Amino acid sequence: MSRGLLAGREGVEEVRSRTDIVSVISEYVSLRKAGKNFVGLCPFHQERTPSFTVSPDRQMFYCFGCGKGGDVFSFLMMKENLTFGEALRVLADRAGVKLSRATAETGSAQKVQEMRKALEWAEEKFRSVLGSDLGKECMEYLRSRGLTQEVISRFRLGYAPPFWDFLLRAAHHDGISEEALVDAGLLTRRSEGGLYDRFRDRVIFPIWDGMGRVIGFAGRVLKEGEPKYLNSPDTALFHKGRHWYALHLAREGIRRTGRAVVMEGYMDVIACHQYGLDNAVGGMGTALTADQARALFLLGGEVVLAYDSDAAGMQAAERAITVFREAGGRVKVASFDEGKDPDEYIRSKGKEAFERQLEEARLDIMFLYGKYARECGGDRVAIKEKIVPVLASLESKVEMGEFVREIASAMGVLEGDLRADVESYQKKNAKTRYEYKKSENRNTTQHGMTLRPGMAGNSAIRTGSGIGRNTTDSVPIKSNTASVKGSLSGQVAGREKAEEGLVRALLEEPDLAVEVREWVAPEMVKDPVCRRTLEIIFEYVGKVVQNKSRERPGIKAETVLNFVNDSIDDEEARARIAGLLVGEELPGPRERLVKDYVKTIKKARSLELEAELKRCEASQDVERQALLLKEIQELRRGLG
Fold first, then answer.
1. Helix, strand, coil percentages for the chain (3-state, nearest 5)
2. Is the model more confident about 635 or about 134?
C-alpha cells in the first residue's frame, strides 16, 4: 500500500516540509559537509570510509556501499524498525504538526501499536507504585544510593510490587489486553496454564529506543535474590543487542563533549547523569554486540569504557574491547580505585575527579598490556605470549608499530625483538587471519551489494510524436542474426544508463516530461524501478497539463519527487531513486540529455524486436511478424 493511501497526502507533505533530513540523521550519524551534500559512516552496514550521503537539496539519503537510501521517513523506518505510520507520527510530533487523519495500519503494525500502548501503561503503573506506600521501601533504597527526586523522575524509575498478578489485575481494570502484555514481555505464561507478572519486588528501570520511547524494562532486586537484574525478553520492539541504556538522554552530551562513556550498570549511568556527566550510556547486562558498538562510533568522538575496577569488570572490559575492535574502532579504558565501581567513585570523589579519570583513560591495547602485566606478575615471557596475538591482530601497520614501540619500552625489551615476534606470529597464523578477513569481506559484500531488480519481458509499445521524427512512411528493415546478437549485448550497459539518466533528468526538471511522455512509453523501459517511476511522473504531469499541451507549466521538482516517493510502496525502489539523485551530476543540459536517452532506449527496444522478428521468421508466424514490423518501423521513424 502506498504512503498516500496509508495517510492523507496533505499531512505527509506538511510533515515533510517542516522536517530537515540532515537534522534528523545527525542524531544518529556524525555528518560532515562535502560540497553541497553531507557524508558520514553508514548506520546500516560496517565501513571505515564514509560512503553514506545525505542531500539537503533532495531531502534524501543514499549509501554507495550497501545501497540503502530514501527520504526521512525511510530512514526512521529502517533505523528504528518503524512502520510508515509510526515514522509519520514521530516526525509530526517533532515538527509540531497535528495530523488530521488517522493513519491506516496493517495487522502486524496494529499489534506493535498495542505493545507500545501496553509498555507505556506499565511504565506509568510502576511509577505510580513507587510513589505510593507500596513503594516506600524501594524509594528508601534509591535515596540510599544518593538519587534525587529530579533524577528519579528524569529516568522514570518505578517499582514492581511483590505480587504475581499486579499488572494482570490492573490490565483487566484498565482495558489493556493480556496478549499485548505477553507480547511486550510483561506477562509470562505458566506451563500449566495461566499468566503471571514477570517483574516482582524489583526497582524498575524503563529501557528506551533511540527516540525515547519505552520498549522494555530492567528490574533489580531490593534484597537478596537471583537474578540480581532481570531484563525484558527480546520482543518485536526490544532487542538487548541493539540498544544502549539512556542513549536518547546522552546523545546531546556525547556530541557536545566528543566522548561517549560506556558503563556496565544502570545505576552507574544514572549517577553520572545526576552529577552532570550526561554523555554516559549503559549496556543491557549482557555481552556487547557489534551493532551497539557501531551505534556509538557513528556519533563521532571517542568511546571510553568506565567499568568496575574488580576482576569481573576488567574481564568485561577486555571482552568489550574485542567487540569494539571488530566493529571497526578502538576505545579507551578508565581506571578507578581498587574495588570501587563508577557509581561509588563519583559519589565519593566527585565529578571533577571522575572526569580526570576519563581524561587519563588508556588506549585499549595499553589497557590490555597493563592487565596482562598484573596477571603475569611481571613475567615478560608470559606477558609476551598474551600481548603478541593482540598486536598481530591489528590491521593498521602504523598503529601496530606505535603500540609495539610503547609496549617494548614498558616491558624493557628491544622494540625490534618484539616486532619480530609479532611478525613471526602473523606468518604462522596467516591462514587463520586470511580466513577471518575473507569472512568479514564476504559479509561486507553481501550487505554492500545493490540489488537491481530483474529485467522485464517484452511488452506492447505506445508510439508518439518521436524525437526528430521524419515523414517517411516506411523504414526498410534488414536483419542479421549475428549482428543483432552482438548489438543487443553491446546495448545493455548503455540502455541501463539511459533509463536511469532519463528518470533522474525528469525528476530534476519535471517540465521536460510534458514532451517526453509523448516520445517514449514506460513500457519501452526495461528496468522495473525506472519504468514504474516514469509511470508515476507521467501520471503527475498528466494531472497538471490539460489537453496534452506542450507548454511547460513550471512543475516543482520537489513536488514530483515527493509524489514519486509517496506513490511507491517498495523501500528498495526508493533507495534506487535516492541513489540516482545523490550521485554525480548529469553530464550536460537536461533537455539535450533526455533526447539522447530516449534515442538509446528506442534503439535498444528496436534491436530486441528485430531479434524477436528473426525468431518469428523461423517459426513462420506471419501475423506476429506483421505486428513486429509495424512497431519497428514506428520506432525507426522516431530515431530519425
1. 55, 10, 35
2. 134
Whole-number Å distance between alpha carbons of 117 and 120: 5
Please report whether residue 543 resides in a domain. Answer: yes
Domain that holds residue 629: 481-639
Confidence band of 208 (pLDDT split at 50, 70, 90): very high
pLDDT, tens only, 332-371: 999 987 667 899 999 999 999 999 999 999 999 999 999 9
Please, what is the average pLDDT of the chain? Answer: 84
CA atoms within 13 A on the CB side of 62: 22
Are 589 and 498 contained in the same domain?
yes
Categorize the per-residue pLDDT at 318 as very low, low, confident or very high, splitting at 50, 70 and 90: very high
Q: How many residues does the chain have?
A: 640
- Identify the H or E element spanning 220: strand 214-221
Lookup result for grid cell 517542516: 18
User: 0.85 exceeded by the pTM?
Assistant: no
The candidate with the shortest Cα–Cα distance to 16, out of 564, 447, 395, 466, is 564
Number of domains within the chain: 4
Q: Are 30 and 299 a contacting pair, CB within 8 Å?
A: yes
Question: Are 632 and 602 spatial neighbours (Cβ–Cβ below 8 Å)?
Answer: no
Secondary structure (3-state) at 415: helix
Q: In terms of domains, do 68 and 212 share one?
A: no
Decide if 191 is inside a domain. yes
Q: Contact at 8 Å (CB) between 384 and 424?
A: no
Do 297 and 409 share a domain, yes or no?
yes
Q: Are 87 and 211 in contact (CB under 8 A)?
A: no
Q: How far apart are CA 541 and CA 281, in angstroms?
A: 50
Same domain, 294 and 404: yes
Q: Specify whether the CB–CB gap between 203 and 161 falls below 8 A.
A: no
pLDDT category of residue 484 using cuts at 50, 70 and 90: very low
Higher pLDDT, 473 or 384: 384
Domain identity same for 215 and 271: no
